[in-house]
Amino acid sequence: MDQLVERFLKGDRRALARVVTRVENQTDEGREYLRALFPHGGRAHTIGVTGGAGSGKSTLVGALAAEYRRRGKRVGIVAVDPSSPFTYGAILGDRIRMQDLALDEGVFMRSMASRGAIGGLAPTIDDVVAVLDAFGFDFILIETVGAGQDEVEIAGTALTTVLVNNPGTGDDIQALKAGIIEIADVLVVNKADHPGADVLVSQLQALLSLAPAGSRRPPIIKTTAVKGEGMEALAEAIDAHRQELESSGQLEEQRAIDARHQVLGIARAILLERIRVSTSDEELDALVRRVAARDLDPHSAAEALVASVGG
Fold it and tell me: Of 94 and 75, which is predicted with more confidence?
């Protein structure tokens, strides 16, 4: 283990890949690597890219990574793909869309399956991001699944959240709904060369004008990611948000909020695993049957499970 950590800290990409795999698979060895490497992170700017399916997130992530590489920055990419509810397998097609970056030594890309996790992310996303941070990447781009309007978990992982919209979907008003738009630090109208892009920009501007006085209004950036257009403006908007966090003193506060989110999430996972291990199928089935028969309410049943492991 010590040798692999030493190679990792010297910038060995093979060591990075091995550590990421062990961390992603939630092995005991992976947790030891994470404990050893976690103190070496904290410098990367984490950027979440979310939005509906078909909005062009993967293409935009690839184009933004290329923009950062032109600026001499090192980029880590974590792309989450939806997985089967039965096998938890995934196609991991985002890697296919970003093949142009595959041979760039300044870019490391890892595709992950959501494995049933809600919120558009994967269960071990925070751990993988922490490993990439410790490796010394300047920027870490995190692409969510893109399944709908409830993908707000990314706000607890990324310092800057980019919400990607695109015109011509037949229901542009979906972009204006509460929830996901409220976590956006930068709004992107992608496929800006399509008809209706200016209308969508106007709709977003109208929505932002309804925000309470004094509240932050995220910038709206027009991009055509497939052509690489608008990436410079997007990178500058992201940098401006980072500078805003630093100058206002909100950066440390945001890191604390993200850390709270991660700690509570891991605690929930540990508690659930303890319940799974300590509760037999027969005991669980007995509780479930009582709930189904209305002899016991679900909250009381859940409290009984938690109490059984001393929670």
Answer: 75
